[in-house]
Write a structure and sequence with these properties.
about 0% strand; about 90 residues; 2 domains; mainly alpha
């Protein structure tokens, strides 16, 4: 355990009630478990993109589609209009 100031830390730990210390342990264990689950899900997502690529789908475009589908339709349309305005001003369209 890191040293955060010597005796002050020991005093602070001793001032935590047994119930609070147990709750702290539970919370830390829960966060660690969730982090492991998150890593597992992240690995599953990577594998799914790899599978999509093996079927000839473009993972980069697929990521864009997923991002777009998360947005509210009206918000997305407004962003597209502004993007088109910017591209037009730059002479790109």
């Amino acid at each position: 355990m890191p040293d955060f100031g010597g005796t002050d830390t020991v005093t602070a730990v001793q001032s935590l009630t047994q119930t609070t210390q147990e709750k702290l342990r539970q919370i830390v264990a829960r966060i660690e478990r969730l982090e492991e689950e998150k890593k597992g899900i992240s690995d599953d997502v990577k594998e799914t993109y790899a599978e999509a690529k093996s079927f000839g789908l473009d993972p980069k475009v697929l990521r864009q589609v997923i991002r777009i589908r998360k947005q509210d339709r009206q918000e997305r349309e407004e962003q597209e209009q502004v993007r088109d305005l910017y591209l037009h001003a730059l002479g790109e369209i």
